[in-house]
Design goal:
Length: 555
């Protein structure tokens, strides 16, 4: 980029044309206060707190690009007085009595108050009361705390691509609304929670974190979500000295660009599944508790006549140990081979122009991939062609919608597609054949389970074998019901489900952020998940059991 010379605070500096005054000041380690600005969102200059002086004129540094001969002054008495006045007005316009606010301690408006030494309200406060929107399962919107920075609106559309939030009315009556002014809980909100993460005040908060801990009371742990094979980067705020996660934020420095879906942001916080709390074995009188040594002894006795089924929830380290113990008797309970191999990555998804999605509701199942596509559609930089005969929440944003049985005829009609990326999960043989014929297509396979690729790397494929004893290790017991009827069945799983009592030995294993390990994401990259919590139940570390079995076998 071309370099130009400008003056900042009297010093001549060479800077890159195209950058804003704020960006240049940051590079020079010069502080300018900001509020509405939030990279990577496009700046919009609504709060005015970042104003600076250029040759006698005030300009907002977040929206003004550097230009030749600028003479920028960051902290003249007039600039400071104006910022002070702006801040006073922001505090006055709505209810900013910090001691009653959940965001107090973490609020950017409050921090500015401290920075500017505000110790009283200069003007009479505007006493109008706005209704709090508590209709959403996870999120509360309190317009009384809103500074109208529109970070939430921009994040919801520019980053997450959901386009739910907007604004209504003008001036001091402006409020943030969902869709056409419906309660957030009844809106098209996908519960991605990005608006909560970017809101600088207590205007958008999440119900589970509410009053459970300020940032200063938490430690930040970087990890990854393993709810699906996208493997988004997360920043976990764990309360110091406790076994409690206060909130989960998206990591802006990872491929997911800070975006998460409902599962990544809230599944670990609002755990609804019932847990298997201790190990038990069935005898003639029902179930009785069993300890670690009893588990090892029973598995050892049954091992010779066993087939082992696993699912794709297991980490690479666990799969490798399972193979070591059970060798070639390990199979995937579910189909795990792609109908057509992927030949593009998440980065290609971000930059493509035409997308053909086949039979998968991205919003519900692979939310962040859905975000990357939707934001291209909304900004008119991409087209979405959907083939799905079932309900699909992408139908109202797609440019063309066809039934799945119209695959061949629909593709015939769309001749002007620009190297489209086909996004799919399951494909029938016929669909695979139709798609494989077209050399112009690129393919992005979404595995059904988080670590389906890890299973294949360990050469664990789907197959059902008859056997006297069955061992199942994983979370999804659906496919086990029919094959386990005649056998002695040992189940390693975290959850207590209706069908679980049909099996013979039940071993509760750690789940969620109680586990650590690695898996392969959709791009085939190794993603690491850190352990954050200790289990509250008498669960077992799967690796410890497998290592003990290896030890016993080698004696
Ligand atoms: S949770 Fe996500 S989809 Fe819902 S309003 Fe906030 S940013 Fe938009
Ligand atoms: S709700 Fe929060 S992010 Fe949205 S405009 Fe208000 S203060 Fe800004
Ligand atoms: S897209 Fe997948 S990895 Fe990302 S937050 Fe959602 S469930 Fe987790
Ligand atoms: S930060 Fe520049 S106008 Fe708000």
């Amino acid at each position: 980029m071309e370099k130009i010379k400008i003056k900042i605070n009297g010093q001549e500096v060479e800077v890159e044309q195209g950058k804003t005054i704020l960006q240049v000041a940051k590079e020079l380690n010069l502080h300018i206060p900001t509020l509405c600005n939030f990279e990577p969102l496009l700046p919009q200059g609504s709060c005015r707190i970042c104003l600076v002086e250029d040759r006698g004129k005030f300009v907002t540094s977040c929206t003004t690009q550097v230009a030749p001969n600028m003479d920028v002054k960051l902290d003249t008495p007039d600039v400071i007085a104006s910022r002070n006045l702006i801040l006073q007005l922001l505090f006055t316009e709505r209810n900013h009595y910090c001691m009653y606010c959940e965001a107090s301690g973490d609020c950017e408006l409050q921090k500015l108050g401290y920075e500017f030494g505000l110790d009283h309200f200069e003007f009479e406060t505007y006493e109008r009361k706005f209704t709090v929107d508590n209709s959403h399962n996870y999120i509360v919107i309190d317009p009384n705390r809103c500074v109208l920075c529109r970070r939430c609106v921009r994040a919801c559309s520019q980053l997450a691509g959901h386009n739910v939030l907007g604004e209504m009315n003008r001036g001091i009556d402006t409020t943030i609304i969902a869709d056409m002014n419906v309660p957030l809980g009844e809106s098209s909100c996908t519960s991605c929670g990005l608006c909560v993460q970017v809101c600088p005040t207590g205007a958008i908060t999440d119900k589970r974190s509410y009053y459970f801990g300020k940032d200063i009371q938490t430690e930040e742990i970087y990890s990854n979500c393993d709810q699906c094979p996208v493997g988004c980067g997360v920043k976990i705020y764990k309360k110091k000295g406790s076994n409690f996660i206060v909130k989960i934020y998206g990591d802006f420095d990872k491929e997911n660009e800070g975006i998460l879906c409902k599962l990544g942001r809230y599944a670990a916080l609002f755990e609804e599944k019932s847990r298997l709390t201790s190990a038990k074995i069935k005898d003639d009188f029902g179930f009785k508790k069993i300890d670690f040594d009893g588990i090892i002894k029973t598995i050892n006795e049954k091992m010779e006549d066993s087939v082992v089924y696993v699912d794709g929830s297991l980490f690479n380290e666990e799969l490798s140990l399972i193979k070591k113990v059970f060798k070639d008797r390990v199979f995937s309970l579910y189909e795990n081979e792609p109908p057509i191999e992927s030949n593009v990555s998440i980065d290609d998804i971000k930059s493509a122009k035409d997308y053909i999605v086949i039979g998968v509701d991205l919003n519900r199942e692979y939310g962040v991939i859905g975000s990357f596509i939707k934001r291209k559609i909304f900004s008119k930089n991409g087209r979405l062609i959907l083939f799905d005969s079932n309900y699909n929440s992408l139908k109202n944003v797609a440019n063309y919608v066809f039934g799945i049985d119209e695959l061949e005829s629909g593709l015939e009609k769309l001749k002007d597609l620009d190297s489209p990326i086909i996004i799919y999960k399951n494909l029938s043989e016929k669909e695979t054949e139709i798609l494989s014929k077209n050399k112009n297509f690129r393919f992005f396979y979404l595995p059904f389970e988080t670590n389906s690729i890890g299973l294949l790397k360990e050469n664990i494929k789907h197959k059902i074998e008859k056997s006297k004893n069955i061992i199942f290790i994983g979370k999804n017991l659906q496919g086990l019901k029919d094959i386990a009827k005649e056998s002695f069945t040992i189940v390693f799983t975290p959850y207590e489900t209706d069908e679980i009592n049909k099996f013979d030995l039940l071993i509760p294993i750690n789940d969620g952020f109680e586990r650590e390990g690695s898996f392969y994401n959709v791009d085939g990259k190794v993603i690491n998940k850190a352990k954050v919590l200790d289990s509250k139940f008498e669960t077992f570390d799967l690796k410890a059991i497998l290592e003990e079995l290896i030890k016993v076998k080698s004696l």
